[in-house]
Amino acid sequence: MLLNYKFENFMSFRENAEFSLLAPKTKVKNRFPDNIISTGHGCEILKTAVIVGENAGGKSNFVRSLGYLKAFFQENKMVNSYKNCVNTNNDKKGCGKNSNTLQVFDIEILSNNGYFYLYHLEMDFIGIVREELSYKDEYRKKYRQFLEVYRKTCKLDCDGNEDKCMGRNTCKTSFATEYKIDVFKMEPELREVFENAVNSQKKMGLYVTKLAILGNSHAMNLVEWMTNSLCPETNVINYDIYKSMRNEEEDINILSDPRYIEIFKMVDASIIGIDIDKEKPFTNSVVIREKEDGSTFFQELRRDSSGVREYFAWAVQVFKVVYEDKVVFADEMDRVLNPVLSDRVIAFINGKEHHHGQFIFTTHNVLHLDLKNYMKEQIYFISKDVENLESELYSLADFPEVRYETTKIYEFYMKGILGGTASE
Predict the structure, then answer these.
(1) Rounded Cα–Cα distance for residues 379 and 371 (Å)
(2) Helices assigned H by DSSP within 162-216
(3) How confident is the model over 292-350, as pLDDT tens digits?
(4) Cα torsion for 21, 26, 30, 31, to the nearest 10°?
(5) SS3 helix, strand, coil % of the chain, rounded to 5?
(6) Is the pTM of this model over 0.85?
């Protein structure tokens, strides 16, 4: 489960952005018992959250930041900040040497095996600047640092003329780095292998993934969670078309699960079954409906409404939340779904007991600003400054003047009092 997430210098986000799914400690949580997961490890965690903001405000960039971080775990690829992912106000002529390319990520989780992990990553256009991993087995305890790798020295040479530099793609840079490593209770022979890898002059992937390959349990727990439990689904033109291009085996297994139909039929109560096409499940599967007279009606998914096709794909992610304990970030899932269906999905997730999944979705639909279904801690806003084009993330809980009993969130938002509107 995700507890906290922070990042800075990513696309439209320049300053530090903070997102939390920890339940409030106040009595207000007693009004929303279904919205909270009691972990048994000393903390309570929120099941759902909604992020509201205008078009082009930065909502998709927020979800992309998680996908960006996950990719380093998933693909074990070379770690360094990418030009197109650095905030444009920090990127001077595209030159890494003269730009602020330092990106920082912090993520705190409760892993599937009951350990809390706090992971910290700093990287620039050269590579990793600092990487840390800490752990604990109870929320109230202090974290114990397990891994620390940081760059002690970095010598950078560039053959270009800084006065006439046209960007990092037009000149050649070379560098020499030295790293300091500290790994708690590591066997001497493995430490030697690890230190040699750390001080290699080649650009490399995350060091925590290397520890996982060497069989370290804490590193394996974090890598497994990042690669398998975190699901940032970024905005695409048509999510159903996007899924049809991938046809992943795990999707076929979910679509074939009898529990999936319970989720899918929320879009249309007349749906009683699905005949799954395993070759092209998101286009050629057949939706079976029952008419009022008891007769059945069969229709290929590709010939159904866009809302049904879209929800057919998104329902897979909802399944992952309630039955596989995944943490899903859905970017504008409701752009083709009406607010009633979106609320139905949230109610379904909150109403399901004994699951540790979480569902967070972005939207520009202000009808989700509802303190009957959400706590203030479950509502976030993303606002973009019209002058510097930088995004800001903040919570409704930051506004103490907002009262559960009296405040009309919709009116506050439309007047610009809460930010997050294009007219502010």
Answers:
(1) 9
(2) 188-198, 207-213
(3) 898 999 999 999 988 898 899 889 999 999 999 999 999 887 776 778 888 899 999 99
(4) -80
(5) 35, 30, 40
(6) yes
